Amino acid sequence: MRVRYTDEAxxxxxxxxxxxxxxxxxxxxxxxxxxxxxxxxxxxWPDSAQQLAERPGVRVVPLKRRHL
Length: 68
Fold this sequence. Notes:
This protein is mainly alpha-helical. The chain has one domain. Helices cover 54% and strands 6% of the residues. It has 2 helices and 2 strands. The longest helix is centred in the middle third of the chain and has 20 residues, at 25-44.
């Protein structure tokens, strides 16, 4: 499956990544890796991601903070 982003989602993602890079530089790399992993998961196994009832065709994978 091909993962597609809306323009709004791309803007949000840019803002989120910029914010984390500035305010939490120590976790930026691990966050970005988890994000990329979630996108690969949706692309490879779309049914493993929750589908939003209010937005058909949209699937989500929550990114949870990992505890050390």
